[in-house]
Write a structure and sequence with these properties.
With 180 residues, the chain is an alpha+beta fold. It is built from four helices and five strands; from the N terminus they run αααβββββα. It has a domain of 125 residues: Nucleic acid-binding proteins (OB fold (Dihydrolipoamide Acetyltransferase, E2P)).
């Protein structure tokens, strides 16, 4: 009986840890979740030094001479685990400065990231033919999400065990055999 309880407790710990947030509890507690890139862009000096928790998709990773990496990120709202959602909603773009080398191959365009960091102000860079004001933050924690791969089967795909929704296998016998 005691072994069963220990086994169930161990399984519970494993399942709960698989659902944990990717950013540390300390960073999440320091972050002001009401601050968005659009709000900070209005007056970046007002929010200098505040911690935020933002995420999105990498647009570009620039390695700099001093060994740091500057990530340009397209903002996406975060889900309950901190993963950027697959949505068109966005607060614009922001820059995250990592004080270490991040390989541009891993942090390539389209990869999802979650960043916890401190607002450092803003930087203006060209975006197309306009000058865009990017909020910039000093990244204290960065989580690079695993890429998801979608596999498509060539059409037509045949599965002998699937008879179609919503009728099930009765549809096959009722409509494909002559009635008496």
């Amino acid at each position: 009986m005691e072994k069963t309880r220990l086994l169930l407790l161990g399984l519970l710990v494993v399942f709960i840890s698989g659902c944990a947030h990717v950013i540390s509890k300390e960073a999440r507690q320091r972050a002001d979740l009401s601050l968005t890139p659009a709000r900070v862009r209005e007056d970046p000096e007002k929010y200098r030094g505040k911690w935020v928790l933002w995420g999105g998709e990498v647009i570009e990773a620039l390695t700099q001479r001093d060994g740091t990496t500057l990530l340009e990120i397209f903002h996406r709202p975060l889900g309950w685990r901190g993963e950027p959602k697959e949505t068109d909603a966005s607060e614009g773009r922001f820059l995250a400065l990592a004080e270490k080398y991040l390989d541009p191959y891993l942090f390539r365009r389209g990869r999802k990231v979650t960043v916890a960091g401190e607002i450092q102000g803003e930087r203006t860079k060209p975006l197309g033919e306009m000058e865009y004001r990017y909020p910039i933050l000093l990244a204290h924690e960065i989580h690079l999400w695993q890429e998801t791969r979608v596999y498509f089967y060539p059409y037509p795909y045949y599965d002998p065990w699937w008879w179609g929704y919503p009728y099930g296998w009765r549809f096959y016998f009722h409509y494909h055999y002559p009635r008496r």
